[in-house]
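User: two proteins, same treatment. go.

Assistant:
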Amino acid sequence: MNVNGLAAIVTGGGSGLGQATARALAKAGAKVAVFDINAAAAEATAKEIGGVFAACDVTDEASTLAALAQARDAHGPARIAVSCAGVVTPGKVVGRKGPMPLETFARVIQVNLVGTFNVMRLAAADMAGLEPLADGERGVIVNTASIAAWDGQVGQCAYASSKGGVAALSLPAAREFAPLGIRVMAVAPGYMETPMLAGMPDEVMDNLVASTLFPHRLGRPEEFAKMVLAICDNPMLNGSAIRLDGAVRMPPQ
């Protein structure tokens, strides 16, 4: 799929991986709608890339429908949907203060997994009504998993569960949408230079870099964006999750 001239939506587009992806899609000629729960951040990114923005809580159906309607009015139904909205809330199943509060676990699942599914189902419904492109493709959905889906550490039960669910969505959704010409992929980044890692002590950052084999550094958001563009471009990428991690494998803790 050549993204030039096509409509795209990016959730979590106000910062980090989503912002880099919005920039890359716009540079490649896509008409980008930036969704973020932080309206000011979404607006700033959209202004920078010449796109449109919408405040969007991906866990809320009405909010997501409204954001999609705004994007549709500006650019038409999206053929590209990239979900980058997510949260990290570490905590042990049983910590010093007792069991993890159930609402803490549920919130991570709600944002990272349910929110991703919510955007996927609504975007796919729009894509299904589009005329197929020359190669029969109607759209592509790219979700954000994490290497924690396979390498989850102590204190990451909620996060790893949510991202494991995102990775597992890829194949059954791709199978369901295949007759419609809609592909579904997930990218599972390793340690990336994003706001989620900002503010960590130097010692922690040094350990993260030390465990990344090659390149011997943290990943860059722009590299995640390049992977999204590669997925859009290559029609054989479908139904799986790609690790983007410099061969790092997270230790137990």
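Protein 2:
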Amino acid sequence: MDNEMTLSFLAVSENEALARMAMTCFITPLDPTIEEISEFKTVVSEAVTNAIIHGYEENGVGIVTIRALRNDREVTVIISDEGKGIEDVDQAMEPMYTSKPHMERSGMGFTIMESFTDQLSVSSAQDKGTTVTFTKQFSAISEPLSAR
């Protein structure tokens, strides 16, 4: 393992930006492409937003934790909460499914996460929380930063 970090924060919407920025800084040494950065930030945003909105019902109580591991050009991220959990993970991962239609949620969060990662898994238990784990392989550096 090349590097590892853990970040825990209060489950409030403004901290979603903190999570995105911290994770972007974590992958910066890999010299990712703009597309890779955008996709990575989107996955982090979706998972953190789900924890805040669905796990904790936006009540401002509870902690979201991100653990990230970097090994060569592969990054594994584990985003967890101790909120209400997901009743049916398979159903929640179906495109267009949302448990909050009154909030105009698109139901595409997990679909987006799957399309921007190399591997995605979701585990959840009622009233115990949810853990989203994803892995992303970053492309090889074509030339060293010092040569640019």
